[in-house]
Amino acid sequence: MKQRELYLFVLPALVIVAAFAVYPTVYNFVLSFRDVNLISFIRGTSRFVAFSNYLEIFKDSTFQSTVLNTLVFTALSIFFQLVIGFLLALLFNYEFPLKGFLQALIMIPWVMPIIVSGSFFRWCFSDDGLLNNFLISLGLIQEPIRWITSKSLVIFSLTLANIWLGIPFNFILLYTGLRKIPEELYESAEMDGASSFQKVLYITIPLLRPVIITTVALGCIFTMKVFDLVWVVTKGGPGGASHLFSTLSYSLAFDRFQFGKSAAVLVVMLAIVLALVAWLNLMRFEEP
Amino acid sequence: MCCRDEKRVWPLKGASKKKGGVKMLRILGMRRMLAATIMGCLLGLYFWGFSQEKITITIQTYWRSTESTPRFIEQVLIPEFAKRYPNVEVKLVYVPGGELLPTILMQAASGTLPEIIMADNPWVPQLIEAGVFKDITREVMAALDWSDFFEGHRLVTSKDGRIYALQLHTNNLALFYRKSLLEKAGVDKVPATWDELLEACEKIKATLGIYGFVMYAAADEAGTWQFEPFLWTNGGSLLELDQPEAIEALQFLTTLVERGYMPRDVVNVTDQGDVTVRWFLTGEAAMMINGNWEFGWHLTPDVLQQLGDVGVAPIPVPKEGLKPIVPFGGECFGIASTIDPQKFAIAWEFIKLWFVEKIGEYYQWSGHIPTRASYTHMVWEAQPLQRPFLEQAQYALPRPLMGGIEKYPNVSMETILAVQKALTGTQTPQQAFIEAANKIRSLFTPEEYEMYRKMARDILDQTRARMLAGG
């Protein structure tokens, strides 16, 4: 086949990517340098303001706490999702009764719509909610813990909810990776007298390395852009204390009609995600 | 058929010229006739289709089909309109509440606005400014009495003397209470002042162990809207949040939370019809702030009858002798500026049918509060529970004009975020409002700020004067 024909085959995909990925991203980038509000958005009369959107958001205390929130939320989510997902994958690598049934149960958070699980968490975490009632009835606490009505605690409560939501995804990727490791390696290790812990440490983890890195990379992307969970549980509150980039950007655009600033927030988010994923990709190709 | 003919005909070309030529001509002729017939049929179909083609007028709202207004549109207006204009199809399109404004923005930017646009009243001044609505001054003046609309509704739907939309109905906020719970707690008078409310809540908490009072304080416009009655009645303004009147109002609500009279969870409620109503219905809260739309939503006649003890009173005021000043809600309708003249005439006919001919029937059907003085008596007689809302409606204030018009969404967000910070103890009311006032001031140029601050102050003072004069 000629080179030109080959390009023809790629064309449909190129058009779709250009229309639905490249154009919006570029447009967003352009917006972030303009002063766009409701009126100028509709009329198309926005002004070029260079970096002033960026300067303003960097000065804003809500944005500063959003950066911190997103980092805490992403780092803790990924760490615990990965560890718990990995432990579960190790467990399910063995045969035991009811394995299939339990495996299906683990997948539940994944198949449940976020609006449902989010509503559940809101009810669970509220001052008079399930969790506090439970802890009080056990006598563990006297006063309700302010899971989502306290500025300092709210992001950790949301992270907890997100960890629960993300376990199935991590589990399924790691579990699939685990099944591909040849049994003989473990057998020969056993012959050499390796303990279970040593087998995990010296066989499983090194061989799973590419899978783990891919899982973390995907996790970074998915977690950084979480929107629905936070929106359903707190709308970024109380007092803007639980915003992530995504919710802050949405609120700027559609509560306040500051489309330029909203776009600037997304550009910052995109830059961080790209940097993280690029770094992880580099790690994947390096020899351990 | 045609393909089989072809196979038979073309090989004859060279074999027998004469015979084949005649046959070919004949067949060619048949083919032409066939083609002509098909063409004719297609053209016929096209013109038939054209004469039958319906003109479609789309109305876009955020009301679920079960609510009273869309039912009125579907069951009364559309059938009536179809009788008069058989070739016009009126379509009612639903967009979820939170999505409607973004949808209108995208439609306006891409030139795909529906013919008839519904907008929540706070958005209207901005949408007028952005050129979304067509000027309907001439049509409105010819068809109805513009001065019959309460002042606030005229202010919000017009600009520089030109009319761009009409407000259909209005709503506002009052105090819903459960008589039986108040009685059980030994509260013999429905609280009318802040002090009485605190006292009642204390009794309710002590005897029943439930919350005395709930309201909506989530981080959105509706949260600000529920705070505004406390702010405005105390003489505060959104553009003067660092003043004592505003701080006092916030301090009052913070006290309610601190003393355990109001759950702190009010900052995480999804919407005004969500858990606050559930707490009220299940008796977990004795009083709530909510709007009159609840009578068409959760507090329907059968529910009210079952509970048997729901009453409505004005929102408690800071001091005896004052009357609550509330913001008004309610939706406005206008016609898209991008519409062509033929469709504009039809769309206006539809609006006229609704706002002129059927408006009385509409208010009766829906139980909504009229935006026009001459229809108020209809609801007053029919629905005594609505009376606090009706009384407040004539003095209710347009939100955007009280907070910097096009910057109102920003002012509103800064306000509710500060309210949340105080209610959750992140900051004291004073700290929260001083910070918010600074942020709000930085949204404007000093001249703009002064102009809008004065506008809000004037409207507030004039309204208070009118209320005093009105007794």
Please give the structural blueprint.
The complex is a heterodimer of chains A (288) and B (471).
Chain A (H helix, E strand, L loop, with lengths): L2 H29 L2 E2 L2 H6 L3 E2 L3 H8 L1 H32 L6 H8 L1 H4 L2 H12 L4 H8 L16 H26 L3 H9 L4 H29 L3 H6 L11 H10 L4 H27 L3
Antiparallel strand pairs in A: 1-2
Helix pairs in contact in A: 1-14, 3-14, 4-9, 4-11, 7-9, 9-11, 11-14, 13-14
Chain B lengths: L1 H8 L2 H4 L1 H36 L2 E7 L6 H17 L3 E7 L2 H14 L5 E5 L3 H6 L7 H7 L7 H7 E2 L2 E2 L2 E2 L1 E2 L2 E6 H6 L9 H15 L2 E4 L6 H13 L10 H15 L16 H7 L3 E7 L9 H7 L2 E4 L17 E5 L5 H17 L1 H8 L2 E2 L5 H7 L4 H7 L14 H16 L5 H13 L4 H25 L1
Helix pairs in contact in B: 11-12, 11-19, 15-16, 19-20
Q: Can you give a write-up of this model?
A:
- Chain A is mainly alpha-helical and 288 residues long.
- Chain A has a single domain, classed as MetI-like fold (Orthogonal Bundle), CATH 1.10.3720.
- Chain A has helices at 3-31, 38-43, 52-59, 61-92, 99-106, 108-111, 114-125, 130-137, 154-179, 183-191, 196-224, 228-233, 245-254, 259-285, and strands at 34-35, 47-48.
- Chain A has a two-stranded antiparallel sheet.
- In chain A, helix 1 (3-31) crosses helix 14 (259-285), helix 4 (61-92) packs parallel to helix 9 and helix 4 (61-92) runs antiparallel to helix 11 (196-224).
- The mean pLDDT of chain A is 92.
- Chain B has 21 helices and 13 strands.
- The model of chain B is unreliable at 1-19 (pLDDT under 50).
- In chain B, helix 11 packs across helix 12 (244-258) and helix 11 (221-233) crosses helix 19 (408-423).
- With 471 residues, chain B is α/β, with parallel strands linked by helices.
- The longest helix of chain B is centred in the N-terminal third of the chain and has 36 residues, at 17-52.
- The chains are: A mainly alpha (288), B alpha/beta (471).
- Chains A and B meet through helix 2 and helix 13 of A and helix 5, helix 6 and helix 19 of B.
